[in-house]
Amino acid sequence: RIMMTRRFICLMLIVAVGTAASKTQEFEGNDEEKEQEFIYMNRYKRSSDSQDKCTYTFIVPQQRVTGAICVNSKEPEVLLENRVNKQEIQLLNNELLKQKRQIETLQQLVEVDGGIVNEVKLLRKESRNMNSRVTQLYMQLLHEIIRKRDNALELSQLENKILNQTADMLQLANKYKDLEYKYQHLMSIANNQSIIIAQLEEYCQRMPSIKPLPQTPQPPSKAYQPPTYNRMINQISTNEIQSDQNLKVLPPTLPTMPAVTSIPTSTDKPSGPWRDCLQALEDGHDTSSIYLVKPENTNRLMQVWCDQRHDPGGWTVIQRRLDGSVNFFRNWETYKQGFGNIDGEYWLGLENIYWLTNQGNYKLLITMEDWSGRKVFAEYASFRLEPESEYYKLRLGRYNGNAGDSFTWHNGKQFTTLDRDHDVYTGNCAHYQKGGWWYNACAHSNLNGVWYRGGHYRSRYQDGVYWAEFRGGSYSLKKVVMMIRPNPNTFH
């Protein structure tokens, strides 16, 4: 509607300007003719004076007069009015021309504005389309984000299920290992008892055939001896510790019996049980293996590993770490009775160590090896434990060795496990260091900690198998052996 109004006004102005211009041109034509006649008449008019005077003729170039000409002050009023009208008409013409140009400019602007308006409309339409497209894409993005979150949630749930199932599997595996350990333990006891029963039956069957020895000297007959414990162990399928065993002990030798044949034979080595590994070595058993030991003043039988090769031999191994196959994070009762595999990683048991070390003077030797193959040792002139009523308090003697003394700081301290806290620290050191030990506050050494592969380990707590004076507390040793031997005055 605005556009049509503008066009109507423009047409009216164009018609008015055209009419005025035609009239002005006619009037201007008459005016110019009269003005030229007046000028030329005055120009060629000569004086009518006497002919006796000289006359001069000046030829002046003809020029178009643009402004007002004062030829005679006494001009007719009609000419003056015409001249005034002419000037006004000229001014009107100029004004009309200016307005005409302005109208043309306005028309061009209107046309341009119309094109711009159309372009703006198109741009608005495109903008609406783009907004619609952006909205669609945004909704698709939201759906995709929601879908990914759902997938992430499902993945997290699946991971949690897998972790739970893995934990259940580990628990079942641990239970299976415990059951297998108990089974092997019971089977070992049954085999030992079967062997002892068979020996007793054989001995009872031979008792009636004993005859008095003749008065004449004869070669000594072969004394009947039960098989050595090493042979019995070879018949057992596992080497688990037999803890808290209170069997009656057979005498080391039985009454002399006649030989099966009349050919004299040599006497076998004593088969034990022995007081310790040194006594077994003195009886001729110089092979490192499992032996049956019965300390003095007790009927307690125990299986121990005797190291007869480490100079000078006769060492009773009370603890060994070498491959991390046994978990040493145990409770008080387990540490009391002992656990592990005698021919591998094991702990002999606090009660067994107490009976061994209280039948005489014993020294302690600790051998250690790091992951680069370096071997060191620490030896203490005396080593013994107090009874359980004193929580197996540690008693150590003078230090000697090249590993550094990281054990004397624990001298006089009671044994601590995860369920029995006897250390001087406000918390439970066994809980932080993952193993039973004679903790102070807490430790300069812990040979019952977690066996980490590779040496240096990362853990929230200092819980590796470490000896602070040798490689520091953040280094888990590769191999550790703790063993005892009588005669503490003799250093290794």
Give an overview in words.
By secondary structure, the protein is of the alpha+beta class. The chain folds into two domains: 1-40 and 74-205, no CATH class; 239-250 and 270-486, Gamma Fibrinogen, chain A, domain 1 (Gamma Fibrinogen, Chain A, domain 1, Alpha-Beta Complex), CATH 3.90.215.10. 41% of the residues lie in helices and 12% in strands. The strands form three sheets. Strands 1, 2, 3, 4, 5, 6, 7, 10 and 13 form a nine-stranded antiparallel beta sheet that branches. The chain has a two-stranded antiparallel sheet with strand order 8-9. Residues 268-488 form the Fibrinogen C-terminal domain. Its main location: secreted. It is found in: Secreted. Residues 82-109 form a coiled coil.
